[in-house]
Amino acid sequence: MKLNDSIQFVKGIGEARAKLFARLGIHTAEDLLFHLPRTIEDRSQTKPISDLIDGETVCVQGAVAGGIKAYRSRGRLSVTQATVSDGESIMKVIWFNAPYIAQTLKSGLEFTFFGKAVWRGQCFEMVNPVVEVCDGEGRKTGRILPVYPSTAGLSQTHIRSAAENILSTLTEAPRDILPASVIDENHFMPLFTALKNLHLPQSAQGFEAARERLAFEEFFVLQTGIHTLGEERKNFKAIPIKNVKCISDFAKALPFELTAAQKRVINEISADLLKDTPMNRLVQGDVGSGKTIVAAAAMYASAMSGYQSVLMAPTEILAMQHFKNLKSLFLSFGFETVLLSGGMTAAEKREALKKIKDGSAQIIVGTHALISDTVTFKNPALVITDEQHRFGVRQRTLLTEKGYGAHTLVMTATPIPRTLSLILYGDLDISIIDELPPGRKPIETYSVAEKMRSRVNEFIAKNIDEGRQAYIICPLIEESEALTAKSAVEYAEKLKKTAFKKYSVEVMHGKIKAAERKQIMDSFAKGDIDILVSTTVVEVGVDVPNATVMVIENAERFGLSQLHQLRGRIGRGKHRSYCIMFCESGKIAQERMKIMCKTNDGFKISEKDLELRGPGEFFGIRQHGLPELKVANLATDMDLLIRAKESVQNLLSEDPTLSKPDNKPLKEKVCQKFAEVGENGILN
Ligand code: ADP
Ligand code: MG
């Protein structure tokens, strides 16, 4: 069999099953070889019954002694019972709802039983053990089995035997992507050996070593791709922003004292701005830590030095809000701020574009409309992107290219686990604002069930009567944003007629026109609206300190980091704030709710998020426009990631364009992986 052969040529795979494999993205023998098991189940240990330990999961070999009892319990469950003897001792085996087992057991042969042995006072018992004839060729028992990601209708056995078949009939070995030098340095086994160790694991250690090798390779490809993206930028020179001392005047003019963390980060940024190598810095700070003013300080230095600066936000609401705040702030210093966003009229856009081009605007705020071809800057020296996790890597570089290698600052409120930030940003410098402005009270958070509904409504009413405002966040509807918007509208209508008749209730969602959304947000900020029923469009950045209550409907549908982001909309003023999450039961959901109720610390929450999502659903990798990881685990493979990163740097310093023959397979792989996610042509 050849690597490129269709999966249908594999023994036992017909048309129907091939379709199931296709659902997993497996079309060829090679695809299946790289459909790797996530973990193993160790069924290798076999023990005599007399050596069993209560609660252990093992294999026992023996013959059926005495009769097989098959009956239906009162609950109409079919029960099959037998006694097994290994010649010395006996053990009981029971199956529920598996009447066919009786036929298998009748044969009088010797069997292997794999399951959990539980001591029942007189003898051991196994419930629903895996059973197979001991013919020396153990397929399901007596060995270590790989456990694959699968799909409905395709059993582990199907995948296992297909993989075994391919491995035993393959006449060519898959090509190694890692350059030989990298394999040597890391003492890696050859790729083919690794694949065998994964599909036919002989030991847990062998499996893990092979998994690490492939995880390393994944990280290696990913980081080579990202590094190459970053390389383009390094060729640019940035404009040094010479006047940073003036920031102290800026700080003095503020109505509050900057926190120590804000001052430290501003100092770190200032040191970068002075240089002609472009700043490449990530400012990471929990919601409400005051990132905007830090950005504004840098923009101020840029304006005072005679240059433009650009702030790009992921949503129109957020862009508008930044615009409003920065405009009044910079007006007092005599600088002009303009907004550029998709929702503006043609005439408004024209006017903004003109000011951006002729330099009459020093402070430029906008959405991704800023990346469009029609925008020409006069002399941008600083480019800031806010709430970075919403942008793809490619978008970020595009804006930087427009800024001709300007200094870049990235601000993120979602604390990105270190593994991910290393992957996403590579050699990006990181500043952390690890302190909230004084006087912030932690948000009290509760997870409640539906039966508390009327009490929660009373609680909202009481807070509004005290002069506060509330958000009600509508459930996410997976299939479509349109449906989510529709449900928000309907929900708001219902609330207006029922629980909150007395109050002013408005609805907000992504399908409302930008201008109208701005109006709604303005009147909410002014206090004209008591309750804002909204989809997650309020998730980022919106700042209404008088809103102190947030109710999140169907909180189980939101991820932890998203819940934390949402909750960050309250607790921004001097009043005590409350977050109430309605949640349907479910193990993961309960776990999430517990964490939310326990901590306000965004870093802890994001680490937990990563852990709970586990392998397979890697934290936003795809949202960032990066290829998916199949083997590597961001929560646990930190060491491998760092090793891969160093190794990539070494390799690229020797062969920056990957043109040596030994590096060609890697280059092809990187191009292919990044093309899959729309990052075409990065290596050319
Ligand atoms: P985020 O980091 O979430 O973007 P913002 O920049 O929106 O936070 O700041 C949140 C609020 O805190 C704003 O109203 C801002 O004016 C205020 N703020 C920022 N820094 C301070 C400070 N040092 N002292 C008091 N209030 C501050
Ligand atoms: Mg912000």
Shape: globular
CA-based gyration radius? 30 Å
- State the separation between the terminal residues, measured CA to CA: 33 Å
The CATH top-level class label of the largest domain: Alpha Beta
Strand order of the largest sheet: 11-12-10-13-14-9-15
User: Mean pLDDT, nearest integer?
Assistant: 86
CATH topology of the largest domain: Rossmann fold
- Structural classification: alpha/beta
Taking pLDDT < 50 over at least 5 consecutive residues as the criterion, the unreliable ranges are: 615-623, 678-684
- Estimated helix fraction: 25-40%
> What's the total helix number?
22
Number of strands: 21
Describe the structure.
- It is a single chain.
- The protein is an alpha/beta fold.
- The protein folds into five domains: 1-42 and 148-172, DNA polymerase, domain 1, CATH 1.10.150; 45-142, Beta Barrel (OB fold (Dihydrolipoamide Acetyltransferase, E2P)), CATH 2.40.50; 189-235 and 637-684, no CATH class; 244-433, Rossmann fold (3-Layer(aba) Sandwich), CATH 3.40.50.300; 444-599, Rossmann fold.
- Helices cover 39% and strands 18% of the residues.
- It has a seven-stranded parallel β-sheet with strand order 11-12-10-13-14-9-15, with helices on both faces. Strands 16-21-20-17-19-18 form a six-stranded parallel β-sheet, sandwiched between helices. The chain has a five-stranded mixed β-barrel with strand order 2-3-4-6-5.
- Helix 6 crosses helix 7 (204-234) and helix 19 (587-598) runs antiparallel to helix 20 (602-613).
- The longest helix has 31 residues, at 204-234.
- It is globular.
- 41% of the residues are buried.
- The chain binds adenosine-5'-diphosphate (ADP) and magnesium ion (MG).
- Adenosine-5'-diphosphate binds next to helix 10.
